[in-house]
Specification:
This protein is of the alpha/beta class. The strands form two sheets. It has a five-stranded parallel beta sheet with strand order 6-7-8-3-9, with helices on both faces. The longest helix is centred in the last third of the chain and has 17 residues.
Length: 242
């Protein structure tokens, strides 16, 4: 595996001259340098079109950089095949997508336990038996404000805000060293949003999980170690229609 020049040892994310474009002549992201230390809780802000979701997709191995270098947890993702990137993500990254990506025919509990089915590493971290893993899933759902009697319901029976909480619990199970969250509070009312973020940060602190969290709500930034402004570091942001 290759490592970016001048990368900080022990960082969770390190990028140098990182570029991405869906079309070669139309760059979306151009970041000269970025380091996120392991265990950091980072709030990412910026207007629509500034590259927030693109950056998350690159860090999570869903997208592959066009140029430059990007290491995540010491691994240069572009050196991996698509199958190995999927395995890396399953083992190491909890991802909360804007559209949740929950399976409608499964219960809350089974949706949360999905990462344990796809990753032996996550399963072992979540518990040494199926019962222990179910207990951990129930604990996470409870921590995020979902009553125990909801656990066996299908996710289609839930409100959008409740589905969002299930998606976060699924991302947290199995103690992934990196949690990526793309607008995970968008369906929550302002009164509960701050408390919800505090709970997520506390869960990450339990296992020194690095958190990269995107939101349009600047009031949430105070709950994080640092704020990353995409317009400030993305050298093509001013070329994008926002």
């Amino acid at each position: 595996m290759t490592t970016p020049p001048n990368a900080v040892v022990g960082t969770a994310v390190s990028a140098r001259a990182l570029g991405f474009g869906f079309q070669p002549a139309t760059p979306v992201l151009d970041i000269e340098s970025l380091d996120i230390e392991r265990g950091d809780k980072v709030f990412v802000e910026g207007p629509s079109g500034s590259g927030k979701s693109t950056l998350l997709g690159l860090i999570g191995g869903i997208l592959t950089r066009t140029n430059g270098a990007l290491t995540v947890l010491g691994t240069e993702l572009a050196d991996l095949s698509a199958a190995k990137r999927d395995r890396f993500r399953s083992d190491n990254v909890g991802f909360v997508f804007q559209m949740f990506n929950l399976l409608p025919y499964l219960s809350l509990l089974d949706n949360v336990l999905l990462p344990c089915r796809f990753s032996r590493v996550r399963a072992e971290r979540a518990g040494d038996s199926a019962e222990a893993r179910r207990t951990e899933a129930e604990r996470l759902l409870g921590r995020l404000g979902l009553a125990p009697e909801l656990a066996r319901r299908r996710v289609t029976e839930l409100s959008i805000g409740q589905q969002q909480r299930v998606a976060v619990a699924r991302a947290l199970i199995g103690q992934p060293p990196l949690l990526i969250a793309d607008e995970p509070t968008s369906a929550l009312d302002a009164r509960t949003r701050m408390k919800f973020v505090e709970l997520v940060v506390e869960e990450c602190d339990r296992h020194d999980t690095t958190l990269v969290f995107v939101s349009h709500d600047p009031q949430l930034a105070n709950s994080f170690d640092r704020t990353l402004s995409l317009p400030a570091i993305n050298r093509v942001a001013d070329l994008v229609d926002v």
